[in-house]
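S.,

Sequence below, as promised.
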Amino acid sequence: MSEIKNFLAGQKGQQGDQNLYDHVSNVLAKMLLENPDNAYDVLEEFSHDVKFSGQNYKKDINFDHKQRTRETYPEIKEWADKASVNLEKLNVGTEEEPQEPGQCGYVPNLVEEMKRFEWAGIYFGEEETLTLQRSLTKLAHNSKAKTLRLWGKILGSEKDYYIVEADGVEPSGEAGEEDPALADAEPRGTGVNKFTYFVANDSLGNWVELPLITPKHILMARKIKHIFTGNLEANIITNPFFFGKEKHYLKAQIVRMSYTTGIVPRGLYKMTEEEDSRDVEYEEVFNFPTLDKQLSADSWVHINTNILKEGKIAHSEAPEEVEDKDLWLAQRKKQDPFENRLKPLSQDQAPEGYRRAWSFKAYGDTINYDTIAKNITKTNYGVVVIKSHVWPGLTIAVFENTHQSIYVGYGFKASVKPYYPTFTKNVREDPVDPDEQPEPTGNPPVEVPENAEGEEGAVNAEEQPAEDS
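The prediction came back faster than expected:
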């Protein structure tokens, strides 16, 4: 390179004040500054302008190229500003000392998970997935959650929602302490408020915690169907009326879906031996079903308890004015019973228009291989995709004795009937009334000239003889 530079520097012009190396450098500097779309075609024109203008463009190129790109393309600047928040140290812009993220709760490897969901046709793209991975790591550090997972994505008319499910978030207070409307809500960490959910409109946005919900939110969410807008503070305009904002309706739909579609392999859990207990515990010996058995609805069971008709996980206590509280509670349990926990998927009722509530399909290598691993006799490297027909968009991917779930959809339960009644047909307008006509009589009217009125020989219409019929 030094020989080439010396050769170009030795090639001088007629006046001797410029050399070829400086000229080429100046042309390239002008090219970088103006950034033309057809740089190859205008090279000679740029060389001519530099040669006769005598301007030194190399002085103007000593700047931050990243800053120039941001100024030239505002959309890139906006993206870079958001992305830098997830890459820089924590506490930047505050009085505290900036620091790297320390130890935080468990965050799954989204890159590996999305490779499995890609078999089911769900993929956010490599760049989006890496951005989400970094964003979840920072959220885990800030929220102090024990575990985090990407719950899914709900589509909206204006913006979408990325949703993260968190467990072990430290409570900020009992339900109903700050908002009187949440007085009857189940406390944080229990019932329908067991998990904490964070949402963001994009992978670079700020995560917002969804509020606690009440049984009324669950009950009204079962009766309406509303398309999300992407604005948490938007009003829900439906009939019947929904008492809350879009953030409450969003939380209600997430909870309903989570409790309905949470499944595990059959035999992994068993009911506890305690009387009147609905808790479960791990089985001492468990063999993960092979791929051929994973394709059967009898190999999977529901792990979550059902949400009662009153919108809670447990029955409400008897009112104080009730004398026999045990009898009141027994009647309540009879009217609103619990479903059998660990119920196989084969017992689920299919929605209208479907023959089954779940669909199963295998992809990739479906051969079972022998293994010497403890408690595992067979292994395979195929992917089993399980989809819910009750909640279209809910997908579960099973791979190498692990299973993960994700949801991508509009947050609607399957229904063949529209919620809103159809409009009536247009009512036809009344026809135009015809012009009024004189009433017909036996004798037609006779026009009398004005100058003939009162003169001799004038004939009165009333005295005119009738014509023969």
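The longest strand covers residues 147-154.

Coffee later?
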